[in-house]
Amino acid sequence: MRMRTSWHSSKNAGMAWWIVLAVGLAMMGAIFADGPTAPGKPTPSPSQRKPAPKLAANANHTADGAANAPVDYLTQVKPILAEHCYVCHGLRTQKSGLRVDTVAFLRKGGSRGPAIVPGNSKGSLLVQALSSQSDDPPRMPFGKKPLTAEQIAVIAQWIDQGAKAPEQERPDDGRSHWAFRPPVRPPVPAVRNRAWLRNAIDAFILARLEAENIAPSPEADKITLARRVYLDLNGLPPSPVELEAFLHDSRPDAYERLVERLLASPHYGERWGRHWLDVARYADSHGYTIDGPREMWKYRDWVIEAFNRDMPYDQFLIE
After folding, report:
1. In a domain, 198, yes or no
2. What tens digit of pLDDT does each residue of 48-63 get?
């Protein structure tokens, strides 16, 4: 009886602590719901708070830079359609005769005509249905959560840019996963500050920066560059001797030489092999209750050596 009473007492005490903790967390959530306030600065009342900015309903209302940025169909438009539209307008069901899992189907349309008019988002039934505020046409997805203004703007912007489609796009039959499609080299975007470019990849970065009216950061000094590349490739900072050697290397390709030397370092495999070892749940002990040691170092060393030898990925997986 004493044990039972003691157990109930401890149980009630534990419940009391949980209640106190829950109330405290709720109060903290209420305090920080609108973000932390600077010390000494009173929390603004609801009437004093600035209203949230309204999002653009289509690409014509976006900033000029963002409206001119190219929209990629496969990575920006198709995922939206797949998430919100395929259930009613996909492989198994085509309500109103409309199917939207390829651009060809969108152009063909359904019983009401083509779903998109390349170059004219306002005249496209798809955009009209997605942003409709009435019953004609009814808002889509019907009876479900509407798309956000940003999602509609992306689709409208893609249509205004000509509704470009990838070559030989296959219907989404569940077997055409993107991982099995051959990669397609995208066109290099045009930029204003061409003097900043050193390669084609820079053009993609600069195009986005210019669309957001952001200037590129200036090139870092040699000390910062050395620290970054050492930590990135080898996971270790440079030693004072290594740093001095790089600072006094005045050759035009000094940085490229440093990168090549770090890639050839055995520490490279240790730095990057650890990611694969984490995925494979590598450990030198069994863990859990026994936690006894096990002989696994051979696999660890093999993975590190495979990275250092730059083994092809398919061969790495097979072995």
Report:
1. no
2. 433 433 334 443 444 4
